[in-house]
Automatic annotation (TrEMBL):
Protein name per Swiss-Prot or TrEMBL: Transmembrane protein 135 N-terminal domain-containing protein
Gene source species: Pieris brassicae (White butterfly)
Membrane-spanning intervals of the chain: 84-105, 111-128, 135-151, 163-181, 229-251, 271-290
Keyword Transmembrane listed: yes
Highest rank taxon of the organism: Eukaryota
InterPro entries (alphabetical): Tmem135
Length: 405
């Protein structure tokens, strides 16, 4: 169990006297060489980490049956380079800022100034990303901070997690989120969101109340029969979920095709059931409400989102359970900017990201068991395993000086 408290650090005075060479870059005596090594490792790791993320939009274009243009590829490549510089700067600046701070401001190691402070400041590298991507990255990190806090409460025995409770949180969050999304669709400046699907605008058409599910009501916010609309969405998302699950299972075993195929199980369909059930139930409830009342309304998303959220029970996940809540906060924050409640000159998104990055990277070193797995994998990949080496050496120093964990 890796849990390093402030009390542990304060009770080991020898730790405070360690140099940055002993604590932050034990693999070299030179701060300058440490920076160059970290820069090289982070360049490789960052480009590797961002490659599939920026390849996905190009794949989406092809999946829609559209032709991939030179402009599409060039634009995505520019974004890829910006993200690469962002990851490179964040990863490599940890060692550099530590060395600078210790020489100029702090003569000794402390609990907060070794990881939390430099990693918070290095978050300013998010400015390399375009504004809409900053919002998405900040939203992701807010979600991860909530996950970290919940895991911390669980470890302390103050909270009990279960699949049923996570599903209930997701149901409530989806209810609010879909309602806000439908309201946001009528905004001239829509909030950039990353979600499974985007609900259609509220239909202005009015029709006669209808029974059953055959045909289509004039009030329904879609074209074609309701059954086709529901089944098409459910089938598409089911396929996407299954494909994602299978790729995640097969890729690590791609060099041994026989083992890769044998590793496929019925459990690989759980994510597909969740995705398909989520959109299928949502569309079903909205259509039934439109047909029974003869009109569409953003409020239809409240019961539809709540019942659709029950699909998470097929593939429980704490990060996904929290995602609708953080995305709802994102929409509310966007409205705050639009209505002047939050001054435009305030870099709120960037500040939120910096704080969240500092908290999460601090958790990676000091509270590994409560740290979200995404952050552990992120730091491992972006730093080409250098973050693991630094943290491992740090733990050994604490154990060598009699620290308990």
């Amino acid at each position: 169990m890796v849990e390093i408290s402030k009390l542990t650090i304060d009770n080991i005075p020898e730790l405070k006297k360690l140099t940055c060479m002993q604590l932050v870059h034990p693999y070299t005596n030179s701060c300058y060489h440490a920076f160059l090594i970290m820069l090289e490792d982070c360049l490789k790791g960052s480009l590797l980490f961002w490659a599939p993320i920026h390849a996905f939009p190009l794949i989406q274009i092809l999946m829609r049956g559209k032709k991939l243009t030179k402009e599409d590829v060039l634009e995505q490549f520019k974004l890829y380079l910006k993200s690469g510089i962002f990851g490179l700067t964040v990863g490599s600046s940890f060692v550099t800022l530590n060395c600078i701070f210790r020489k100029l401001f702090f003569s000794q190691f402390t609990y907060y100034t070794t990881v939390l402070l430099p990693c918070t400041l290095s978050g300013a590298a998010v400015y390399f990303e375009p504004p809409y991507r900053r919002v998405m990255v900040a939203n992701l990190f807010v979600n991860l901070v909530f996950e970290y806090w919940i895991r911390t409460l669980e470890m302390k025995g103050w909270l009990r997690r279960s699949a049923s409770r996570e599903t209930l949180i997701f149901m409530l969050g989806s209810s609010l989120f879909f309602y806000l999304m439908r309201l946001d669709r009528d905004n001239k400046k829509r909030t950039p969101l990353f979600w499974f699907f985007t609900p259609p605008r509220v239909s202005k058409e009015v029709g006669e109340p209808m029974d059953g599910i055959k045909g289509r009501s004039d009030a329904c916010p879609h074209k074609g029969p309701c059954v086709n609309y529901i089944l098409k969405g459910a089938a598409q998302l089911f396929g996407v979920g299954c494909a994602m699950s299978m790729v995640r299972t097969i890729i690590p075993r791609i060099l041994t095709p026989t083992k890769a195929l044998k590793s496929l199980k019925l459990s690989n369909f759980k994510l597909g059931v969740f995705f398909g059930g989520y959109i299928g139930i949502y569309r079903l409830i909205v259509c039934l409400l439109c047909r029974s009342t003869g009109r569409d309304s953003a409020l239809h998303a409240v019961p539809a989102g709540f019942l659709a959220g029950a699909a998470l029970r097929a593939s429980p996940s704490l990060p996904i359970a929290l995602a609708p809540l953080t995305s709802s906060l994102q929409i509310l924050g966007s409205w705050g900017y639009q209505k002047g409640l939050i001054p435009e000159q305030w870099p709120l998104v960037e500040l939120v990201y910096c704080i969240c990055q500092g908290i999460l990277f601090h958790a990676r070193v000091m509270h590994e068991d409560a740290c979200p797995r995404y952050i552990i994998n992120l730091m491992h990949t972006v730093t080409s395993n250098k973050a693991d080496e630094i943290q491992g050496a740090f733990i050994q120093k604490i154990l060598a000086h009699g620290g308990g964990m």
